[in-house]
Each structure stands twice: as C-alpha cells, then as structure tokens.
Amino acid sequence: MFSRPESTNAIDSSDLVIDRVGHSGPTRAIDGVSFALAPGELICVAGPTGSGKSTLVAALAGSTDPSVRVVGGSAQVCGVDIRRPGRKHRLLTYRTGFVPQGAGADLPPQLTVNEVIAEPILIREKRVNTKALSIRVATLLDELHLPLGTAAKFPYELSAGMRQRVAIARSAAEPLVRRRPRPLRRTARRVRRLTGRRTDEPQTGAGRCA
User: Fold this and answer.
1) How far is residue 204's CA from residue 99's CA, in Å, rounded to a whole number?
2) Lowest mean pLDDT, pick from 31-35, 49-53, 123-127, 180-184
3) Ordered strands of the 68-77 beta sheet
4) Closest listed residue to residue 207, CA positions, set 57, 91, 101, 95
5) Pairing relation of β-strands 177-181 and 96-98?
6) What is the pLDDT of residues 171-180, one digit of tens each?
7) Three-state secondary structure along the chain?
8) Of 210, 202, 209, which is closest to residue 43 (Cα–Cα)?
9) Comparing C-alpha atoms, which of 18, 10, 60 is closest to residue 38?
10) How far is it, in rounded angstroms, from Cα 205 to Cα 36?
11) What is the pLDDT confidence band of residue 156, given thresholds at 50, 70 and 90?
12) In DSSP terms, which residues pair with 76 in a beta bridge?
C-alpha cells in the first residue's frame, strides 16, 4: 500500500466526516466536508449555532477532546494526517493555533500574562532565548493593543475582552496555521477593525506552512 503523498496546501480536506460523542451516543457533526487552503490564504466557515463549525476547527487543530471523533474521509494540515498523526501529532499542534470560544475564560489563573503567552513555546523548546521571547510577547501585546504592563498581570485582573486578546496572543506566539472560532466576540470594536475581522465571522484560518 502506497502512503498518501504529503500535500503542499496548508489544509486539504476530502469528504471529512466527524462525530460528536456524548452520553446518548455519537452525533454526526460534519458530513462530507471538502476544501483546500493554500499557504497564505484565508477561509471563513459560516453557519448557524450547532452546525459543527467548532467541531471542524477542533479536529483540524489536532484537538485531543475525546468527544471529537473523525470517522470518515481525510484531512491533512501542513502535511500531517489528522486521522492518524502518530508521532506527528506534536508537530500538528505546533503548527496550528486554536482559539476556542471563551478561551479567555480558560487561561491558567496561576500564570501571569507573560507566562501564559510564552507557555506554548516553553513546553516545546528546551532552550529558549529569554530576551527574544520577551520581545515576542511584548510585540504580540502591542499588536493586540494591550498595554505592556499587562504582561505582569494575572488573568483575573483583566476584563473579559482583554483575556480573549491574551488567548489570541498565546495562539499566535509561534503557530503556522491559526484557527479561531469567533475569536473576537468579546474584543473591543477598535481591535476588531485593526485585525480586519468581523464578529459575525464564525471561523477564520490563515494558512502558512512554509
């Protein structure tokens, strides 16, 4: 049997089928989704509440949520097969940034904002240039119009909108593909304009696998 050739696209999905597993058994959330996202392109998936948007995004981002189960079709994200990532699962999560709805409410309460944003990098890298990391964190805070003093604060000291922006910064610290289901829902209108997003865009993803 020949192995599936690695795609050059950021995302390649073909007839993808995903179930949500609950107490009453599996429910079909995604049924036969096919699309391709080239590096540098943007895609928006729109639909009503409960239509499976967040489920699709979670699966593509390599979520380990046991309730999300890919049962058919195929999808590659930056060349990694999401159905059978094997040892490449770590690579998949390294290359993707996933900001779920309400991510700001789930920030580690015992960490400062600086530590929250830097944590994904520190988990994966044994040796880190602390000066470069501090500059990266400061740059992300500035891009999201958060005061540099925010870095020393704890999540409970911030507003809901500020916490959501911290969650976005955390996901943008190093990933190559970003997935955000309604990431800016609680952010200020000024920040939404600057990022070029509308709050009624349920899913956005930017591909960059080079």
Assistant:
1) 10
2) 180-184
3) 25-37, 11-22, 68-77, 80-81
4) 95
5) parallel
6) 877 654 445 5
7) CCCCCCCCCCEEEEEEEEEEEECCEEEEEEEEEEEEECCCCEEECCCCCCCCHHHHHHHHCCCCCCCEEEEEEEEEECCEECCCCHHHHHHHHHHEEECCCCHHHHCCCCCCHHHHHHHHHHHHCCCCCHHHHHHHHHHHHHHCCCCHHHHHCCHHHCCHHHHHHHHHHHHCCCCCEEEEECCCCCCCHHHHHHHCCCCCCCEEEEECCC
8) 202
9) 10
10) 12
11) very high
12) 12, 81
Whether the predicted pLDDT of 202 surpasses 80: no
Q: How much is the CA Rg of the chain, to the nearest whole Å?
A: 17
Tell me the C-alpha distance between 62 and 58, whole Å.
6
Distances 24 to 20, 27, 56 between C-alpha atoms, Å: 10, 9, 21
Residues for the chain: how many in total?
A: 210
The CA-based angle 91-96-102, given to 5 degrees, is 135
pLDDT exceeds 60 at position 76: yes
User: Which has more confidence, 12 or 210?
Assistant: 12
Note the pLDDT of residue 209.
58
Check residues 101 and 39 and name the one with the higher pLDDT.
39
pLDDT digits (tens, 9 = 90+) for 158-199: 998 899 899 888 887 765 444 555 544 544 554 444 444 443
Whether residue 99 contacts residue 180, with contact meaning beta carbons closer than 8 Å, is answered with yes
